[in-house]
Each structure stands twice: as C-alpha cells, then as structure tokens.
Design brief:
This protein has 313 residues and is of the alpha/beta class. Helices cover 56% and strands 12% of the residues. InterPro entries: NB-ARC (IPR002182), P-loop_NTPase (IPR027417), Plant_NBS-LRR (IPR050905).
C-alpha cells in the first residue's frame, strides 16, 4: 500500500513536470496574441509607474531634497527597460502584419517566449516601484564659514553686546534682535561670532547670513540663502522663489537668520523668510547703523555696540 502511494506520488510529480512545460510550449505556439496583450498592458503599467515616480522626484528636487539611491536606481532600470523593448515591439508588429497570410511558427514561438519573459521582468519592476518608503530626504545645509574665535577680539562694549545678544537668543519671547552702532565698530564681526557660537552651543538647527546694504536686491538675497540651503529656483518669478524659500525654511525647527547692514524696512514675506506666527522657531538678528531702524522694524531687543575706548585702542 505504501509502495503504491509512493509510486502514485512520483507519477503525479513526473506528470506535473512534463505537462506544465508542454502546456507552456503550446501557448507559445498558438496563443501569440495573448502574450502580446499581456506584454503591452505591462509596458503601460511600468510607464505609468515611471512617470508617477519621476513626478515625485521632480517635486522633491525643487524642494532641494536629495533623492534616495534605490529610487534613482529604479528609475534608471525602468528607463532602460522601456527603451530596450524596441526590438520586441518591431518584431511583434512584423509578425502581426503577416500572421494571417504567412505565419512563421518557429519565429512566433521564439517571440512568444521572449515576450513572456520580458513581461515578467516588467511586472516585477513595476511592483517594486510601490515598495519605496520614501522618495527623498532633506539635504544637509552647507555650513557657513564663521570666523574662528581667535580672530574675534572682545572690547568692553562688544563683550557686553555679545552677552546681551546670546541671552536674547535663548529667550523664547524674543524673535528679533537689532544690533546698532556707527560704521566700522565691528557689527559684522560680532554677529559672525554670535552665529559661530550659536551653532557651537546648538541653539539652532541652522544659521543663515545675508548682507542687505543700502539698496538690497531681493533676488540676490534669495540666491545667497538658496545656495546655503542647496535650493534651486529654475527660472521662477520673484514671488515663486519667495514661496519656495519660505516653504523650505519652514522645514527647519529652529533657525537663526542674520541680516547684516540693514538700511530700510524689511519685507520678510517678499524675500521668503517665515517669521513670527508663520514660524515660531525662526529668529532674526540684524545689524544697522541707526537705533531708529531697530524701533521701526520692531526689534524686541535692541543692542548697542560702541567704539573701542582709548585704552582698548
């Protein structure tokens, strides 16, 4: 009884091994158009998956994000597969055009086999496009080259101003600090040191700096900030650039924007700097020659930087 059972099992297995390949070979010969239809449908599915993922990648790049390595690899593989089926496409058209009048059975058999294998490759590739947990990640910001501390010489006035600014940066109720003093007293040098120390103490995730001067160029300011962020504008309008910069800066939880040499009121929205209720984690540190400017821009904290005393000079 046991021998008969084993024998039956072996016979069943042999039949399975023989019958399935035979059926497959039969289909290759006589079901050519089924293979063509399956191939065309899978090609369409892969193309749709490619364009869908490519659109997501384009959006991520516009937001200055870095694309995941496996996503780039998939796009490259998919593009190669899509471009590489031209031979099969041409051959199936040739066979289809003369199939009714002069069927070449051996050629049709080989092409059906090739289409079946290629369809399976395309199917697996299309399925893999849905397995990515994310398309991109935020690119690391470029570091600002702040002055080494040994190049920063403290005077009594600058030491007091420095301590006052650092205290204000740690105060959650202060979102804008104005450093004022006559030209040449070292305001730029001081805020450089503040930026360096703020990064060193990890008070902010990022520190950005831009110089405004008497006739600020909004596009130039946007470009300098975008360079630090790795952001690309791609021929956008000034308003479009501001919106993109605005959205990118909002992804940073705590950020210090240093604006040097301010001479007139600042339209933060025009530049693209989220501030106040729009971004509670954003603080502004600006320098100007005039105390009135600090009041006009509504700085919560005003800090004076005087000249060196005769002893210090």
């Amino acid at each position: 009884m046991a021998i008969e059972s084993v024998g039956g099992s072996i016979a069943s297995k042999i039949a399975e091994l023989l019958v399935e390949p035979a059926i497959r070979q039969f289909r290759y010969m006589f079901c050519f158009y089924n293979f063509v239809q399956e191939f065309d449908e899978q090609m369409m599915n892969l193309a749709l998956a490619f364009y869908r993922l490519q659109d997501a990648v384009d959006v991520a790049k516009r937001n200055a994000e870095e694309i995941e390595i496996d996503v780039n690899k998939w796009l490259e593989d998919a593009k190669n597969e899509i471009e590489g089926v031209n031979r099969l496409q041409n051959e199936k058209r040739e066979i289809g055009s003369c199939f009714t009048w002069c069927p070449n059975w051996m050629r049709q058999f080989k092409l059906s086999n090739a289409l079946a294998k290629k369809t399976e490759t395309l199917r697996k590739l299309e399925e893999n496009s849905r397995k990515f947990p994310k398309v991109s990640h935020k690119a690391p910001l470029q570091e600002i080259k702040f002055l080494p501390s040994k190049e920063f010489m403290l005077s009594k006035s600058s030491e007091e101003a420095f301590e006052q600014i650092m205290k204000a940066l740690k105060d959650d109720n202060v979102n804008m600090i104005g450093l004022y003093g006559m030209g040449g007293v070292g305001k730029t040098t001081l805020v450089n040191e503040v930026g360096r120390r703020a990064k060193e103490l990890q008070l902010f995730d990022e520190v950005l700096m831009a110089t405004l001067s008497q006739n600020p160029n909004v596009i130039d300011i946007q470009d300098r900030k975008a360079d630090r962020l790795g952001l690309r504008f791609d021929k956008m309008t000034e308003e479009g650039r501001a919106d993109l910069l605005w959205q990118r800066l909002k992804t940073e939880k705590k950020i210090l924007n240093i604006l040097d040499d301010v001479w007139k009121d600042i339209d933060f929205q025009e530049i693209g700097i989220p501030f106040g209720d729009d971004h509670r984690g954003c603080k502004i540190l600006l320098t100007t020659r005039h105390e009135d400017m600090c009041s006009y821009i509504k700085c919560k904290e005003k800090v004076f930087l005087g000249v060196f005393s005769e002893e210090e000079a």
